[in-house]
Specification:
By secondary structure, the protein is of the alpha+beta class. The protein has three helices and four strands.
């Protein structure tokens, strides 16, 4: 995000996201390509937290990486600050705090 953005993230609430580079970790255990394509689509029903953020003006995906490790393992290896507690981590049992991190 080149500029800050305010986003209503469903029932999680409304948050200000500062400009910067973010990393989001998700599971998509099946049909990864279909899930990523869905997230990248502009016209879609907003369902997951990341859908709300990606629908905001000025937010774009720079890179998608596939990992063999579980999303929480990958998330805990990513250094960064948590901009919104609970984002993408409603069902997280590993104590990640958020599956979205601001890298810089």
């Amino acid at each position: 995000m080149a500029a800050p953005v305010r986003v209503c993230v469903g029932r999680l609430g409304t948050f200000d996201f500062p400009a910067g580079l973010y990393a989001y970790t998700g599971s998509a255990l099946r049909n990864l390509e279909a899930r990523v394509s869905r997230h990248l689509a502009r016209a879609k029903k907003l369902h997951w937290h990341i859908d709300y953020l990606l629908a905001a003006p000025g937010v774009r995906v720079c890179e998608v990486r596939r990992h063999g490790a579980a999303e929480c393992v990958v998330n805990q290896q990513v250094a960064g600050e948590i901009p919104v507690k609970g984002f993408g981590a409603s069902d997280c049992r590993a104590g990640c705090g958020s599956h979205l991190k601001r890298l810089r």
